Amino acid sequence: MSAPDRGARWRFWLAAAVVFLLLLWLLNDILLPFVVGMAVAYFLDPVVSRLQRLGLSRTLATTAVTIFAVLLAVGLAMAILPPLFGEVQSLISSTPQYIVQAATRLQPLIEPLRQRLGMPSLSLQDLQADVTQWAGQALTIAGSLASGLAQKGFALINLLALVFLTPVVTFYLLRDWEKVVAAIDRALPLDHAETIRQLARQCNAAIAGYVRGQALVCIALGSIYAIGLMLVGLQFGLIIGLIAGAISFIPFVGTFVGAVLSLGMALAQFPPDWMGVAKVGLVFLFGQTMEGNVLSPKLVGDRVGLHPVWIMFALLAGGSLFGFVGVLLAVPTAAVIGVLVRFLLLRYRQSALYRGTAG
Description:
Number of helices: 12
Structural class: mainly alpha
Number of strands: 0
């Protein structure tokens, strides 16, 4: 290929990437059901393919899998969400009281340190007033955000679209998945098609390995934390454990947030029985040990090549740029960028730019 042709191709792909990102930014308010439907179809495609190998047609297999997935999601939502919302509401309303109780327990321990540092004494009345004020401000901000979203109509539209459009999008993508993949394959540049296919296989392995594995890790950790905290008798142990497990897809954050919430609740509930606080700490120590030595190595592994810092950066960047849709796309995008960077580094090490005259 001549230099002008190569330059024209680079300009074409750069323009295509810019247009894609611009459309993603402009349409991110309506993309949620399509992104969720695509993600669900991606994870359910192996099940549909297996049913095909058993003799079912693609349409029949897709229909059966979609109906089962919808019924399972509705059943879980009806069984889990009502008591979960009740727990969350009780936890929020009781938080100021528990903060003051925890501060009361800790005051004899931290007061000497505050005096040595020349800090004013901790006034529990002032603390209670501040906590109540913070809680009121948080509720006011949340109410303002909810009101603003409701006025724009985005919240209701996204909710309805997520509930009703996602199964439809999932069904059609699952049914036509092989056709879509074949159409993309036929559109690849002929002189780079094999290289692109190899990179696509690596990206697929990285995305599937991390996302599917990390989902199982989150479920396992949520179960460990929720059951463990309930067994040691911690109030709101179920909701705290589930929250810690749900946000464990962000490395270290789930365990840290859950441990802080649980230990704070334990300090308000258990003393002078400090053994209860120790038991809560042991639950999270056990969960972290299981995650580091059993769950993550077995379910995720190092083969996906996604560093925890890179994952955290991708989630924050995606959420900042494109909202919730960006969070959903963050890990797959991070996996693709990781594969491309490793490929480019390999090409760089094979080039004269790296070897210089020594090669």
